[in-house]
Every structure is written in structure tokens, then in C-alpha cells.
Design a protein that fits this description.
Blueprint (H helix, E strand, L loop, with lengths): L9 E2 L3 H6 L4 H19 L1 E3 L7 E3 L5 E3 L5 E3 L2 H15 L3 H11 L11 H8 L1 H5 L7 H12 L8 H20 L5 H15 L3 H11 L8 H12 L10 H13 L1 H11 L7 H11 L5 H10 L1 H18 L1
Antiparallel strand pairs: 1-3, 2-5, 3-4
Helix pairs in contact: 2-8, 2-9, 3-4, 3-10, 4-5, 9-11, 11-14, 12-15
Length: 318
Amino acid sequence: VLTMEWIEGVRCTDPDGIRAAGIDVDTFIRVGVMSGLRQLLEFGLFHGDPHPGNIFALRDGRIAYVDFGNVAQLTQTNKETLIDAVVHAVNEDYDSMAGDFIRLGFLSPGTDVRPIVPALENIWQDARTASLANFNFRTVTAAFNELVYQYPIRIPERFSLVIRSLLTQEGICMTLQPDFRFLEVAYPYVAKRLLTDRDASLRERLLQVLFNNQGKFQWARLENLISLAKSGGDGSKLDLTDTVADGAQLLVTDEDLRRRLILAATEDDRLRVDEIARLAELLRDDVKVDELAREAVTGGPEFLRKMALSWSQKVLSK
């Protein structure tokens, strides 16, 4: 059965037409980028050919895709690993990033990644020395393409489609706004998802980000994530109320995490007052204290049940 729907919109590469329709160009760009990122990292089902003829701006602020003859899927593992790769790039953890390339299929299992790690670090050097405003996805792709000829890297078919899709969308955005930088939206989006999504696997990844391989708490990483999440992404206000509530419950029920955080707060035989104060200042406008209080009252019985269950499991395990 062939189903068709008429789309009344403005071609995405017509900035004058978009403005004439009463649509804010900057908002349209952000909606488009967020749509592409959500397709890849949340739904795992993405439009493989988002060229200018297949994307329209609607007058109500939405974006419309047409021609779904080229659609591809990513597995849950692929989606999670892509998020890991972005986080590792932000945190400059190039050893882990090399491991991500193995898990994504760019490198064969068992490949010695030691020679590749310095090359990955060189690619992301601009991200460390320049602002995101001077760094884009095309720059990363061009640098990565050079590695293909130097190391045993192969590009899986589905990811060649992902790369082409992202490059096409970035090109459209730069047509509308020449100084647009894809990573200015991508980084905050990933940071915000890590901090606010209640998915168990993402909560686990957040903990992996906050503790390094030696189990040491990374205060700077947490501050960096919060700052990135507050800086943009989808343009909505950051709300970490649920995250704080979940963290409080986990802190009480998970003895190992509680021990690690106590060690982090008293590292080097001193109380980390400055770090805690900076976090409190960062979170001041992003946590609804009244909602936390209500949740503590209404969710008290369930919280106590979880505590009792955790305690009983611990006793039985002994």
C-alpha cells in the first residue's frame, strides 16, 4: 500500500522564503539538527538522504521530511556507543574512543589501538584549543578520512550513510547560517541526555563518565557536562530535578556508590568545599526544590521499600 500526504512548506535552503513565512531561521536550524540527532541516538531509525529537496520548513515551526526511500537503522548498542564516543571526545578520553571504534565496527576486534590513539588526539586537538564556534563536523570527517589510509580502518555501510546524512544536514544549516557549527548543538544535546534521561543504560553511562578508570571522581567532567547542557541543544531550559531525585535514591541504596562519593568529597584528606560550592551554584536554577520535597513525601513508602530490598539482598548475599 502506497500512502502519500501533501506537505505545504518552504524549501529548507530558502532563507528568505522561511522568513517570509514567519519562521525564525535559527529556530528552524536547531529543530532540524535536533531532529537528526534524535533519529540517530534515540530512535535508531534515520532518514538516509536528507538533501535540500527532501526537507521543508512548516509554518508552525516543525520540520517535514519527504521521500523515505532511503532509511536505515541503528541497533541499541550502536546508539549507546555513539553517545559514548561523543562523551569520550568531550572528556578527551582517546583510549576509550579507540575502543568505541572497535565496538562500532570501524576496527576489527583485537586491533592494537595504541598507534591510533595519538592520531585521534590530533583530530580533536582543535576542540581543545579552539571554541566550538570554530569546529564543525566536516572538519572532523576530513581529518578522519586521512586515518583510513594510514590505519586498518573500515567504514561500515550503515555508518557511511550516517556520515553522509550528517554532512548533508550540516551543509543545509551552513547555507542558511554560514557561521553555523554542528557541534555547538550536538555536544549540549548529548550532555543534556546524559544528565536528564532516566533510561538505566544512560544513568550507568553517566556514572562511567563521572568516575575515571582508577575510580576517581571527576569534578571537572561533571561541571563541564552541566555547563554544556545549559548552553543550548534544543533551546529548552535544563531541569535536573529528576536526576537529583534519582541520585539521592541511588546514594542511599547503593553502598559502593555512597562510599565512592564520600571518598570523592574528602579526597586528599580535605573536604572538597570549593567543588561542591561550584556545583551548587551551577545547579541553583536547574533543580526545583519544591518538587523534590513533594517527591520525598509522596514517594517515601516506595523509597523505604527499595531500601529494605537493597538491605535484604545484601544480607542474603553474605
